[in-house]
Specification:
The complex is a heterodimer of chains A (172) and B (142). With 172 residues, chain A is of the alpha/beta class. Chain A has a single domain, classed as Ribose 5-phosphate Isomerase B, Chain: A (3-Layer(aba) Sandwich), CATH 3.40.1400.10. In chain A, 45% of the residues lie in helices and 14% in strands. Chain B is of the alpha/beta class and 142 residues long. Chain B has a single domain, classed as Ribose 5-phosphate Isomerase B, Chain: A. In chain B, strands 2-1-3-5-4 form a 5-stranded parallel β-sheet, with helices on both faces. In chain B, helix 4 runs parallel beside helix 5. The radius of gyration of chain B is 14 Å and the shape is globular. The chains are: A alpha/beta (172), B alpha/beta (142). At the A-B interface, helix 2, helix 3, strand 4, helix 4 and helix 6 of A face helix 3, strand 4, helix 4 and helix 6 of B.
Chain lengths: 172, 142
């Protein structure tokens, strides 16, 4: 499978371990960064990772930050993405089988390495269980349209990054 | 605090228990789903709408897994929702993400842990500062 992956600077090592794990299993991985531990901002990587899935470049996405919340929220705010923030295998299975989730999010400081790998195995292996009920729910979720103009715009967050560089956010 | 709460049929029993906890803690509870027969989509939409109108300080949505409400809530403008299954995430997500809504999966999280999650979530405050740039980014997305 082709897997799009992204993280913030808190869990770069954990993400790198997952990339090696996935490649070891024969998957092709698109690593959207971040690539080092310099302070950065999770929505950049959640958005990038998700857009590789909606564009069809990747089959599924994986996002990781400290708690997993911020980066999975940002991935879910991309049109066409149904992201699941999980801390256990069963929720990952449900999200794929019932909600046909296309991105999975985890907290690198919450979920240990063994469980992270198990969650990913089950998320990738589980198949969507098509039914009228499941199709209808997914249709309702997808109809909640997020901001369309955001898609594939690498400068979408520039106004905030500029403010950041100019000291506009205290306690930098 | 004013807390908007809602559940689908599978989260109804835990919702009733969390309502009692919120009463004991002295919070004002706005129950958006007194009926027990909703699905998670409708339950989530009701709670999110109250938060968007700023009629409550925070929201809690309970279904079986928490994954569905997370997907639905986070598609709404200005809503940052966390699916929470541990006390540490409950605290951290307020501090760093300024989370206005949490989802709890009653099929995954036991009743005692659910109570501790809610307590941790309501005790914590947003840190602001450098975290605001990320919140600004999320709010621009939708």
């Amino acid at each position: 499978m082709k897997i799009s992956i992204g993280c913030d600077h808190i869990v770069t090592d954990e993400k790198n371990n997952l990339v090696a794990y996935l490649e070891g299993k024969g998957h092709e991985v698109i690593d959207n960064g971040t690539y080092d531990k310099e302070r950065t901002h999770y929505p950049i990587y959640g958005k990038k990772t998700a857009e590789k899935v909606t564009s069809g470049e990747a089959d599924l996405g994986i996002v990781v930050c400290g708690t997993g919340v911020g980066i999975s929220v940002s991935s879910n705010k991309v049109n066409g993405i149904r992201s699941a923030l999980v801390g256990d295998v069963e929720t990952a299975r449900y999200a794929k089988e019932v909600l046909n989730a296309n991105v999975i999010g985890m907290g690198g400081r919450i979920v240990g390495e063994g469980l992270r790998e198990n969650i990913i195995d089950v998320f990738l292996e589980s198949e969507y269980q098509q039914s009228e009920e499941n199709d209808k729910m997914i249709e309702r979720i997808d109809a909640l349209v997020a901001n369309e103009e955001a898609k594939n715009d690498d400068h979408y967050f520039d106004e905030f990054l500029e403010k950041w560089d100019n000291g506009g956010y205290p306690d930098k | 605090m004013k807390i908007a709460i809602g559940s689908d049929s599978k989260g109804f029993e835990l919702k009733q228990q969390i309502k009692e906890l919120l009463d004991r803690l002295g919070h004002e509870v706005l129950d958006q789903t007194p009926e027990a027969n909703l699905d998670f989509f409708d339950a989530t939409t009701k709670v999110v709408s109250v938060i968007q109108k700023e009629q409550a300080d925070r929201g809690i949505i309970i279904d079986e897994y928490g994954a569905g409400p997370f997907m639905v809530a986070n598609k709404h403008q200005g809503i940052i929702c966390a699916n929470v299954f541990d006390e540490h995430s409950a605290k951290m997500t307020i501090g760093h993400n300024n989370t206005s809504v949490i989802a709890i999966g009653a099929g995954i999280v036991g009743p005692k842990l659910a109570e501790k999650i809610v307590e941790a979530y309501l005790d914590a405050a947003y840190d602001g500062g450098r975290h605001q740039i990320r919140v600004d980014m999320l709010n621009k997305m939708c």
